[in-house]
């Protein structure tokens, strides 16, 4: 398997008035042209890991790693300009909430075509045609109408699909998807997953899929990383998630509802201090 991304001992720290917060603590993994799921509770460091790879950590954050390599490029040593040339074209990230990610004063069409024309020399007409095709591909009805709308004029689910279209239009080699289907209906969710699956299988794209949905990750991804308190506590094949051995992973699985069983109230995850050590 061709190695696309290598993350070795990644750390993200935030100095505060009361001390340093370690958001990511020594995370290591590799990614080929496959689907890698990252799961864990809110605050476990999943999104911070993705943002560090993208170079989107806030300026006051401190990112270090023994190795952070994308396709032979040292992401920690390249300039800000080189980072910008990678973002959107070779590495893209679907952020969790479109309300805070889309520009409220630009039309949806202009935002999508801007992404494409930043990285490819295409005419306005071709950019529009490709943007409309991508909006249609993410199951947006009447893409011509949506193309002319502003973000506040569409629903949250539609905004999420717009974000996905914007990140996929330039054909990235690596896509980091942070809860990309959380605001979507089940049927649309499946359509979006099919698009991502097609990009992985046909174009050889690498996908990091961040999610709270363990069932979705177990059926969609190839491998799964389980994070707790900024650390990786377990890594295994997605198909073997139900047989995970770490007590934290077992606790997450045990908290999920089971159809046909009376589990009220649901079990509460019992966190152990040694898991964060």
TrEMBL record:
Subcellular location, principal: membrane
**Gene3D superfamilies xrefs:** P-loop containing nucleotide triphosphate hydrolases (3.40.50.300)
Could you name the domain of life of the organism this protein comes from? Answer: Bacteria
Q: Name one GO cellular component term.
A: plasma membrane
Mention one GO biological process in which this protein takes part, according to its record: transmembrane transport
Q: Domain ABC transporter, which positions?
A: 5-254
- What Pfam families does the record tag this protein with? ABC_tran
Annotated InterPro entries: AAA+_ATPase (IPR003593), ABC_Ni/Peptide_Import (IPR050388), ABC_transporter-like_ATP-bd (IPR003439), P-loop_NTPase (IPR027417)
The cross-references to PROSITE patterns, in alphabetical order and at most eight, read: ABC_TRANSPORTER_2
Task: State the membrane topology.
Answer: Peripheral membrane protein
Alphabetical keyword list: ATP-binding, Cell membrane, Membrane, Nucleotide-binding, Transport
Where is this gene product found?
A: Cell inner membrane
Q: Which SUPFAM superfamilies match?
A: P-loop containing nucleoside triphosphate hydrolases
Task: State the family it belongs to.
Answer: Belongs to the ABC transporter superfamily.
Protein name (record): Peptide/nickel transport system ATP-binding protein
The record lists the organism as Rhizobium hainanense
